[in-house]
Queue: 2 jobs
Job 1
Amino acid sequence: MSMIITISREFGSGGREVGKRLADELGMAYYDREIITEIAKQTGLSEEYIKDWFGGK
């Protein structure tokens, strides 16, 4: 069974640190905005399109 945890945050809230610590504690991979860039590179699609497709802002 795969598990995906998403954390929505506002600038300066410390959400990135919470996400990293949670991933470490659970032994899971941690991805941040760089995953959007990597998907765009591999598919040739724009980052904006990828964000829209995933429902991001």
Job 2
Amino acid sequence: MSLPRKQDVIAAAISIVSQKIERIKAELDDLNDGNAQNSKSTAGDKHDTERAMVHLEIEKLSKSLSVEYAIRNDLEQIKADSVNSVISNGSLVETSRGVFLIGAACGNVSLGSTSVFCISAHSPLAIELNSKSVGDVAEVNGNDFLIKSIQ
């Protein structure tokens, strides 16, 4: 397996998160437009219920949007050109169980034939990998992760 460059992984992850942000913003715009139309009607309980449900959905999407902005910020803080001999926040780590970018929890990013899992620095795996180097083994939930390379 050819390990992608850390810069490419970060760029792909930022692109995915930015697309999510745009999708959420579009959904929020649609809901706000629909809510404005609903508020013009004064037909009674049915419309009050609809407005309340739309309001709850807007709150949920607003929280999701906030989370996605935070993830994108975390990704933008990773120094793509820094390479350490030990794993830390921002490391791209190849293990016997997959490739991981530590620093932002945005899920799976595919680059060619390689899947990279972007995980939070506070996740159990990232905590276990922290300060380890090539050849070390991290154990999480009974699974061993042999560290093959670090970028």
